[in-house]
Amino acid sequence: MSDITSEAVTKDDINVDSVSSANAKDINAIGHDLGAEMLTNIQQLPFDEVLIREYLLDNPDFFNRYPELLVAMRLPHAERGAVSLVERRQELLRQRVSELEEEITSLMKIATHNERIFNFNNELSFKLLASNDLGDLRQALSEGLKGEFGFSHVRLITVHDIDSELANIWRHRLQSGYYFGRLTQSESSRLFGSEVGSVALTKLSDNNGQVIFAIASKDPTHFHPDMDSLLFSQLRHLLDHILPQL
């Protein structure tokens, strides 16, 4: 009897162990499948680079807390293959310093150019104000602008010189008060006596009648519609003031 019982118990124990082992394998398989599924889901989640960028900007000491990342992170480099974040940052800083040096050099050149124009404008203004008649005014204007900028022609055409062709230039080219660019061969010949590259034209105020102030350059690209009219505007206002007194 005891042998039968013992044998039965042993069989039951074997059955229980078998079931437990099978269940464990099933649980492990399920866990593995769940883990793989979760990893897949995580990999499929949207990678919000903007949030990471904002976090790093809001926490500039992040890499101080985790300095190992500076060396561990590798960034692609066109010439050196891969470099650390520290090396990449140093390279970017050197590039930025170089860019700032170029910007400063450019600004200094612009400042020097503007100072030169300011001094020239002051000197020319005094010469124009000292003119005794229209002939002196035209000569001072022409010599000054040609000498400083190398213009090929400088003309101040008064009402007495206006004819139908000049009147057309007055109406069509100077509607906005200024014209920068190129003229037709006919217009160039009428204004300057020959064909020119590019021109700057302006009309004086109506108080002086129909007066055209015209400058020409041999360079077809020297005067263009997008250029600054500051110097030209200053000369126009000065001529508007001087002409009625001559």
Q: Please summarize the sheet with the most strands.
A: 4 strands, antiparallel
Strand fraction: 5-15%
**Order of strands in the sheet with most strands:** 3-6-5-4
Described by the principal axes of the CA atoms, the overall outline is elongated
User: Number of DSSP helices?
Assistant: 9
Please tell me how large the radius of gyration is: 42 Å
Protein name: DUF484 domain-containing protein
Keywords: Coiled coil
Organism: Shewanella litoralis
InterPro entries: DUF484, GAF-like_dom_sf
3D structure, described in words:
- Pfam families: DUF484.
- The chain has 9 helices and 6 strands.
- It is of the alpha+beta class.
- A 4-stranded antiparallel sheet has the order 3-6-5-4.
- The chain is elongated and about 85 Å long.
- Residues 1-20 have low confidence and may be disordered.
In short:
This protein is an alpha+beta fold and 246 residues long.
List the helices and strands and how they pair.
Blueprint: H1 2-44, H2 49-58, H3 62-65, H4 68-72, E1 74-77, E2 81-84, H5 85-129, H6 134-149, E3 153-157, H7 164-173, E4 178-181, H8 185-192, E5 198-203, E6 212-217, H9 230-242
Antiparallel strand pairs: 1-2, 3-6, 4-5, 5-6
Helix pairs in contact: 5-6, 5-9
Keywords: Coiled coil
InterPro entries: DUF484, GAF-like_dom_sf
Organism: Shewanella litoralis
